[in-house]
Each structure stands twice: as structure tokens, then as C-alpha cells.
Amino acid sequence: MIVVMKQSATEEQISRVVKHLLDLGFDPYRSTGKVQTILAAIGERPFDKNDLELFDGVQEVVRISLPYKLASRNSKPENTVIKVKDIELGGSGIAITVRVVASNSFHQVEQIYTRLAQEGVKLATVTLSEKQPSEKQLKEYRAVADSLGLLLVARPKSLQEVAKACHYCDILEVGTLSNRLFLEEASKADKPLIVSRLPSMSIEEVLVLAESVLSLGIEKVIICEQGVRMLDPLIAQSLDISAITAIKRLSHLPVFADPCAAMGRRDRVAPMALAAAVGGVDGLVFDILASNEQYGTPQALTFTQFLELLQQLRLIVSAIGRRLL
Amino acid sequence: MIVVMKQSATEEQISRVVKHLLDLGFDPYRSTGKVQTILAAIGERPFDKNDLELFDGVQEVVRISLPYKLASRNSKPENTVIKVKDIELGGSGIAITVRVVASNSFHQVEQIYTRLAQEGVKLATVTLSEKQPSEKQLKEYRAVADSLGLLLVARPKSLQEVAKACHYCDILEVGTLSNRLFLEEASKADKPLIVSRLPSMSIEEVLVLAESVLSLGIEKVIICEQGVRMLDPLIAQSLDISAITAIKRLSHLPVFADPCAAMGRRDRVAPMALAAAVGGVDGLVFDILASNEQYGTPQALTFTQFLELLQQLRLIVSAIGRRLL
Amino acid sequence: MIVVMKQSATEEQISRVVKHLLDLGFDPYRSTGKVQTILAAIGERPFDKNDLELFDGVQEVVRISLPYKLASRNSKPENTVIKVKDIELGGSGIAITVRVVASNSFHQVEQIYTRLAQEGVKLATVTLSEKQPSEKQLKEYRAVADSLGLLLVARPKSLQEVAKACHYCDILEVGTLSNRLFLEEASKADKPLIVSRLPSMSIEEVLVLAESVLSLGIEKVIICEQGVRMLDPLIAQSLDISAITAIKRLSHLPVFADPCAAMGRRDRVAPMALAAAVGGVDGLVFDILASNEQYGTPQALTFTQFLELLQQLRLIVSAIGRRLL
Amino acid sequence: MIVVMKQSATEEQISRVVKHLLDLGFDPYRSTGKVQTILAAIGERPFDKNDLELFDGVQEVVRISLPYKLASRNSKPENTVIKVKDIELGGSGIAITVRVVASNSFHQVEQIYTRLAQEGVKLATVTLSEKQPSEKQLKEYRAVADSLGLLLVARPKSLQEVAKACHYCDILEVGTLSNRLFLEEASKADKPLIVSRLPSMSIEEVLVLAESVLSLGIEKVIICEQGVRMLDPLIAQSLDISAITAIKRLSHLPVFADPCAAMGRRDRVAPMALAAAVGGVDGLVFDILASNEQYGTPQALTFTQFLELLQQLRLIVSAIGRRLL
What we know:
Chain A has about 325 residues and is an alpha/beta fold. Chain A has 2 domains: about 1-60, Alpha-Beta Plaits (2-Layer Sandwich), CATH 3.30.70; about 80-325, TIM Barrel, CATH 3.20.20. Chain A is built from 11 helices and 17 strands. Chain A has helices spanning about 10-25, 50-55, 105-120, 135-150, 160-170, 180-185, 205-215, 240-250, 260-265, 270-280, 305-320, and strands at about 1-5, 30, 35-40, 60, 80-85, 85-90, 95-100, 125, 150-155, 170-175, 195, 220-225, 230, 235-240, 255, 285-290, 325. In chain A, the strands form 4 sheets. An 8-stranded parallel barrel of chain A has the order 7-8-9-10-11-12-15-16, surrounded by 7 helices. In chain A, helix 3 runs parallel beside helix 4 and helix 10 (about 270-280) packs parallel to helix 11 (about 305-320). Chains in contact: A-B, A-C, A-D, B-C, B-D, C-D.
């Protein structure tokens, strides 16, 4: 880190900071210019910026090592490609993931899965909890998925469901349940893990979360952008395209986006999904309605809307030299 | 507007609000439910929401008529297409506009204009003021533009320059100079006017600004999105793709975007320009460097970067059934 | 709610919305003006604003009943006063709550508690988990608290700790652990509950959280303001004085503020604590250091700083006709 | 500034940055640690952070000298006190400034000024432009002010009015008219200048604006906080108490606050005015109504509200060892 001392800092104040840096295990270099002194301490020991800034005579402390190493593109310049069965995530393909919402009928879901598979879709999300599938249903989902060549993504909503999710599904998604216990439980299964940037998280916070997963030994981590609150009174929330480009620049991990969750209304999903596709995402997650006459999930696309959007996406990503998975 | 009275509102409080609405020229309808009373006053008389909310017994006042009429898609569902010479803005084409920055040499600019015209670019921006072109230079610009079939866009920086800009250029741009005097001066020339959403303006504010131009009788108004400050500490500012889609939804006016101004750094321009293109813009404005070895305009693309981006844009917009102008 | 139809809405579109409102159990009133139609549906049935806005012909849906009833000042105009033993929270007194941080020594904490009690402080927070006090220590805390007339506040960090917290402490604090299971567990004990507005929560969200606690039958709810992220690059986070005044206006519940957590640095706590006091809070929570030579908790005040601030607070709140508890 | 090079930066990339720093006139020091290299260039030459960050191999550029020198507390640790006639602004007193709104009657204003003077108020704001006072009226204002011992503050709204404002008034206020020409014109008169932080300005931006005034030789500069847009949907705008404390910490200049402009509604002014007072302001600006039955200025206090608030403020500031002017 760099400690910038005030112009008015005394020699004694500087010495006290130097001593503290030595205590922390740093080997600080002191540079005194005409105006002020700076102390450079390069290395990776933990420190608290605020603690240091509270020393008398300190103007500002600047952190220069990133709080995420394994996740950063500095440490690994090339994109991480995650292979699940014969599907490569984070490569040249953009993975379409579909979650069928508001259906109680496994048969209905099965029919939709079949049509999705015909359209070339490779990933489907099974939500655990709330209307959670029973063990019997999970077996059925698994059988259908296998017959269609679909990968199953699970969103467990409690610690108890993780083992079951790992058993029947191919990829795990961490939603709001991103605590240490959950991550440790999930890490046992060696399944790819999707960590979501919730609206309340900064870009750095989701990268630090990804780092904590990587440091548990799970190398297959995907980041999923879920939208942010916007400042404009006319836009409550939106997918953040600039965040997608920033995360791709800062990290080698695959990045997904969830335009349905982000936009909250089906009539606003399509242009943002296209924008995310050209903005660099490696996957797109969509909620679709089991039938057109449903209320309560305004973010979910009708099947017709989904097919139209899929067609547009196919053209768009082909124009940038990628393809849909 | 709708006045929602508190549950605890007395008859006397309700009467006082009704009387005030009548004084304002409204013809309010009163609806009293089991829980509370609402007063609906449909119409377009001016009122101050805060004034009304300060009446005793009022819970909330909800404005239901938009503060922009002429600019709204409610009043005109189809897109406005602005024809300048033989070029149509706001139609199926996406207009590329280029501003050559940091050059003192007219000859250098002329060479670049020629190359731009070869690439099919149709609009070029001439900045007035600061290093402002003299009358003689403007004549030269005009001659070159005419010979190449370019439209000239002017950004006058003072009231004094408006007449000159109108004389030599085809389109005027209102930047920070959006006051009444400027707009009135500009309205005399019957030239298309670009109004910018500056980072400090909300979506509604730029629509109200467009409305004020339309109400002066200038029908050819283009809105230009210039980027917003972002909440994330890692992204100081960004082009706001969701604002572009929102303005297109709310208004029939053509919308341009300026990804260079919005992003501030040339290495961040390309993905956001592509995202804006699929997000629905009718024009894109780019700063380009007169030569590669320049400092002080980090937002400007090198000519090579610009050509590469142009190629990508051409493929992308063709995939969505549009084309570059 | 009010459904504002577009000017262009057809009779058929209006009928379809009316039918849907009837299906939802509303008894909508239709008002058609010269410009447009509005539908007013007063009542408290649940509905999804986005669902309704997706109907063809709808311009906007405005919710007019608040999503929190029990917590709202509409339903209970006078302040709620919560009596715990002989101490009244939410009345004319402002309760000072202290948490001693970074100490492993019960003896050290005991000494500080004794000095706090001499200063008239009535509430002390015991953190459970991480360096969690054992059952034996909790007994000791309880004994000391009883001998000094202190109330103990507990911040359990897992569901497992709730029962223990209820047994030994007087008030429970819900931090990040605000899920349904936790609230149900906590509701069994009939202890006052502090719900925090975390930086990611809007004002309405914390009121809805308070509502969910009230609806479980716990009437003794306190809201604690913990600070928000700020837009200005120079201020990462801050206590939000305007939120305090807004919550006091909208709700009858007592409001506490935690300026240490909100500001993150001890040198910035004092003026914001004073501002919160005159802004209407009913309690202030402070972290204090067990000894002056500690790092890692830059938000915690030294004991000397705390005493000085206490003295200032005493003068300030006396000037507004309140007193410190 | 500090240039932090990437871990992967090559010697050639480092050399190119060093050369550029030398070209800019810096004398950079290079420090190469185990992980990465940093270049420290202490001094005050102008540079563009983005330009530097665009060099290959650069991870981040950190500015360490503030973009405002004269305005900073680093350069002048003690508070600046501005003496106007016998009144000291920025000292131990907090100056109450009043603007009477929405009155066409000079006689009415005169009566109010007389009552204000009886209450000890020392500053009154005269708005120029819109309903601008004529030269004759300004003379009358001046005469009344002199007879009552009031200082007059002028808010000219065009360049043309500056000279007149300087002639008849004691203090000038820069509102939205903060351009160079205006500041140069104002600087001729050697009157104290109030620069406002408009809602669209960051803290650093208002300090840079104050710097530009100081660098014109006007030493008597006051900063006025006007409120910011808030993120919470329930609070459109608010006075920013943390900004007040931040500006006082960063700068030696007196800071005023305008809670009426900031809050926009008279019923929300009082608690924020009290909070600003204990937060460290040196002056408070209030709009007051000429008569109670006025609409269109919901931010203005009634005279009765103002007197009550004045009474509360007097008690509060006395509790923190200050007094009202």
C-alpha cells in the first residue's frame, strides 16, 4: 500500500507510521519530495486502511494490491473455460440457461424442456425450496435432462438442500445464501458454482466472494450479474452492462447475466439481453412462463417471446464471432 | 393528478383540498373507500406537487400526466424521422458521427474527413469555441463537407456563435448551453437540434428539455445520451444502456449516444458502443484522434480502433435489421 | 391502487384491466376525463404492480396503500414507548447503548461497564458468536448487568444462539440474520427486537421488515439506522440523517442510530451522532475500545472520546427538551 | 502521483511510463517489490490520470496531490474568518440568512426585515433577475438594510447584473452562474463570494470551484451546501450533513447550508437545520414566506415556523458553544 503523509506531518508522526508498517510485516520505502512524504509498502500482508488513516499526519492510504488474487486477470490473463460434461462455459459459446417458473406440473416442465432442447438450449435451472421438487421429482428431472442432453443448475435455498442438489444437478448456484458454511458444504462436491452479484453488492464485493470460493479449492466459478438499483427515478433497477465489461476486464472467470431478474418486467428484457451479449457475457439466464396466462412473475418471458429473442441473439452473437450454447 | 388522503383525514381537510383543486381549475372526482379517500383530478393544469402535499390530511400526491407532451410517445406513437439533405435520422439507419479532436491542422482534418467519407460516415462534428474555427476555416469545412457529402454538426459554446453555426452547419448541438436564450436563438434557423442528457440530468429532465425545444416550434429534435455517474466505486461513469431503452420507450424522438464522452477512456468504448447499437440508438458519436501520439483526450479512439469498431458495428446492426449511415 | 390508462387505451383494453381487478377482489371505480381514463381500486388486497403494468393500454400503476400497516404512523399516530424493566425506550429519553469491542477479558469489560454505569449509561450490547461468550460468561455478564442496573442487548449470529440470547439478555438485535426462521424463534421470547436498516436496504424495506416482526405478535420493535453508501467519491458511507427523520415521520416505532457502524472511523462519529440526536433518534449505539492501543476496529471510540461525546450529547439533547438514558 | 504497474508489466513498458513522466516534468522514483513495481512522482505538475492509465502495463494511477490547494486545510489549518462590516463569518457565530420569497411589495419586505432585525438576524438575500428589483428598489433595500444593520446578499442571475449587485450589496452568491466570466467580473469588486454546491456537484467539484475563485485573488469565499439527490425512493433530495462535515474537514473556508432549497418542503426543514448546526455549519440560509397564504414556494417557511426554529437553533448552538448571528 501507499501511505501519503500530510505536508504538515512531523518526523515523529512519520516514524510512528513506519514503525507500525514494520510491525505489520511490511518493508516500507520512504520517499520525501519537496511537498510531502510518501511511504510505499509493497506486499500482501493484511492491513486495515482506516486504522492507518487514523494515525496522526496521514493524509490518505491507497491500497494497491487487489483484495482478490486467484480471481483476478492479473494472476491469470487467459479466460477460464469450465467444462461440464461436453459443454464448455466461458469459451466461444454463450450458454442459454432457462428456468421455467410458476409451474406445478412436472409434465408441463418436461414438455418445455423438450422444446428447449430442440432449440439447442443446454442448461436448465431447477429451483430447490419453496415449491421444492421432491427426491422423486429430482430423479425425474435428472432422467429427462439426461435424455435431452441438458445440464441441470440448482439453486438450493438452505444448507440442508446442498447435498441433494449436488447429487442430482450439474451446477450449483449461490444466491443470497453465500455464507461460509454454505460454500464449504458446496465445495465438497466439486461442482461448478455460480456466484451472483446481488443488487446490493459492488463489483469488488462479488470478486471477493468469488475469491473466497476459489480459495476453498473450487476452481470452477462463474459470476452472474443480477442487476443494480439505478439512480434515475424512472428506472428502479436494470442490468448493468458496464459492470459486465468491468468484471470481464478484471477477472478471468466466466460471467453470466440474468436480464429477467435484473429488469423485473418481461417487456424490458430483450434489448438488455442483446446488449449483455455484445458486452461480453458467457451466459444468459432467462425465466420463462410455463403458460401464457400467469400472474405473479412479471419478469418471466412467454415462450413465444423467448423464441423470438433466441433468434435475435443467435444473429447477434454470430456477428461477433460467438455462438449460442 | 391523484390526491391520496390519509386514513385520518377529516371532512374539513378533504373539503379544503377540493376547494384548492377547484381554484386551480381542476374538476376533481372524489372516491371514498372503506379505508381512505382519493381525489382524482384529470387534466393538464399546472400544479405544484409539494404545495398540495403540504395540505393537512394529504398522504401523497401522484402526478399522472407527463411533464412532456409533444416529446412523448403517447402523443405520437411512431418514430420521428428527421431528414437532413438526403440523410434520414431516426429511421432504419444508425448515424455515425465523428469529431476529430486535438488537431490544429485543417489539412489533417480534411484528410481524415476524406477517409471517413470513404468508410461511409455521413456526419462530422465541428466544435466551435476554445480552438474555434475562424469564419475562413468554417467555409473550408463547409466546402470539404459538401464535396464529400458529409453533414456538419456544430457545438457552439456561446450565444454569439449560434448564428455562425447555423449558417455553416447542418445540425446544432446543445451541450451545457441549454438555456432559454440559446434555444430561442437556435430556433430561428430551423436546423435539427441535438439536446444532450448530461450526467447530472435525469431521464425526465432531458425529456422536459426536449419538450421546451419542441414547444418553440423546432420539430427536429434528437436526444443524445452522454453517460451517467455510477454508484460502483470501480466505475466512475458509464453509458447508460437502460436509459437509452427507456427514452426510446417514452419518446418518439431519435436517440443518439456518445460512448466516448460517457466512458472517458478509449479502451472502454467498443463494448458499450455495440451494446448501445443493439439497445436501440439511432446514432453514435465518436471522438477520434487526429494522430496516434496525443495526450489529453483519453476518450478519443485512434483511427485504427475506430475502423475496427465500425466493422463490428456494421455486422451487429445488420443482425438486427438496421444499417450504418 | 390507481391504474392510469394511456390516452390511446381502447375500451377493450380498459375492460380487460377492470375484469382483472375484479378477479383480484377489488371494486374498481372508473373515471374517464377528456384526456385519459383512470381506475381507482381502494382496498388492501395483494397485487403485483408489474403484472398490472404489463396489461396493454396501461400507462402506470400507482400503489396508494402502504406495504406496512402496523408499523405506520397512519395506523398509530402517537410514538410507541417500549418499557424494559424501568427504562422507557422511545419516550423523552435517548438511550445510549455501548458495545465494548476487541476485548478478550471479562474483567476488562466489567470495569468498563462499571464506569459506563457511573456515567448513567443504561444499555450494553453483548455480541454472540465469533468470540462468543460462553454460558458461564453470559451468567457473569448478567450478574454484572443486574448489579449495575444495565440492560443487556444481544446480537446472536446464528439461529442456535437465539434461545441463549433470550435467556440472558433483555433486548435482541436482528442484524443480517433477518430471515423468517430467526424472527419466529425470537418471537417466542417476547423480548424487544431491534431491526437494523443495513446499507443495502431502502427505508421502505426496513419498514416492511419491522411490519413482518409486528405481524408475528412482537409489538416491541425498534428500528436501527446503520448508514448508507453515499454517491460522493469522498464519502464511502455515512449515517443518513434524512432517513432518520423520514422513518420517524412514517412510523411510530422508536428509532436508534449506530454512528460508529455507519461512519466506519472514530474521527467522524461525533458530529453525526450530534446530528442524529437533534434529528430525532430515540437511541444511539456506540462501539468503544477496551483499551486505546487497538487496531482492527477503526470505528470504535476511545473511552476518552466517548466521555467527551457523552458530555456534548447531554447538553444538546437538553436543548431540545430531551435527556440521555 | 503514484503509478502502480501490473505484475506482468515488462521493463520496456515501465521505461516508457518513466520517460513520459520525465516528459511531463516529474522526477519519478521507482520502487520494485517482489510482486510489482510502483513509480512515485511527487510534485504538482498537471497530468491526466486516464492518459497514464492507458499506457500498457499500468494497473492504476493514484493522484496524491489534491486538485485544490488554496482551499485546502492542508495549506491553512485554521478556519478562515471573513469580516463584513462588523460581522464575522466563519468564526464562533452561525449566520442566519433570510430570503423573503414571493412578494411583490417592497413595503411588505421592509416590515419583515424590521422584524428579522429585531430577532437578531444579520443577513438578508435579495434576488436579482426574474422579479428583479429595479435600481430604485435596490437603493431602498440598501437604505433599509443600513438602518437595520443588515448585510445584503445578492444572487445575480446574469453577467449584466453583477456590477449592480456589487454596488448595492455586501456579499455575492454564485448559483448556477459559476462560469469564468462571471467569476472574473465578480472578482473586481472584492466582495465575499458564496459558491454553492449544486445537487449535481461532488464535494471535490465544489472545492475546485472555490479554488478557482481563490486563485482569482478573491480570498473571501464561502461554500454553501444545497442538498443532494438521494438514492432512497422515499427521499428525492436532502441536505447532506456528512458533506458538511467533510468540507469542514478538508477546507478552512466557512460553510453555509440551505436546508430550504435542499429539502424542498417546509415541513422537513427544521430537523435538518438543527442537524446542520451541530454538524458544523457557519451559516444557515432560509426562505420565508411574505404571507402565510402562498403557493408555489413549498420550501419556504412561514414566519411563525421560522421564529420557532430560530428559538430551537439558539438553544442548540449555545449547547455547542456557538451563537447565532
